[in-house]
Amino acid sequence: MASAPPPYYWLRKLRSYFVLNDRDLDGVISREDFVDYPVNRAKTFLGETKAKDLEILLSQGWTDFIGGDNQTATFDAIIGKFARTFTDPNFSEVNTKMAELMFTAVDINNDNMVTLEEYTRVLECFGVHPLSVKPSFEALDANKDGLISKEEFIDAALQYFQCTCESPGALFWGPLRA
């Protein structure tokens, strides 16, 4: 019995995520694209300590969500990994743990809140243009207090990777690119 195709909007977000991470636009994401590029930029934008936090996070993300033991991943392979959202009851917990780790990397001053400046610096590590960050930040700031709390951040990350309809979390990685 064939399964239903993944929802269009969810695919659109993952396509955008793929494009964001395919640094050399060769149609695959390599470990260098996914880990090395943002970590090298993080050394400039975040400092050595946070760059190391990001490297640990992205290395785990590569193993769990992107390439596994492979050196590259296609869009279809990534869809297969993230499609566990719809079949694995424990997948939300895995996503939540990754979002918590990401929050630690994003919270540059370790005050349990993310400012627009912190969010801008982190997204710059991934190649998101600074002018694209403010609308994303505002969408993630659910209570409109000018800060993204850990709860707001994790909710937005889960919305990005798990929600099949439009939501503020769709802007988690900046504007959709595809």
TrEMBL record:
Alphabetical UniProt keywords: Calcium, Metal-binding, Repeat
Keyword Aminoacyl-tRNA synthetase: no
EF-hand domain ranges (all copies): 94-129, 137-163
Coiled coil: none
InterPro entries, alphabetized: EF-hand-dom_pair (IPR011992), EF_Hand_1_Ca_BS (IPR018247), EF_hand_dom (IPR002048), Recoverin (IPR028846)
GO MF, one example: calcium ion binding
Presence of the UniProt keyword Metal-binding in the record: yes
Name the UniProt record assigns to this protein: Sarcoplasmic calcium-binding protein-like
Organism for this UniProt entry: Lingula anatina
The organism's taxonomic lineage, starting at the top: Eukaryota, Metazoa, Spiralia, Lophotrochozoa, Brachiopoda
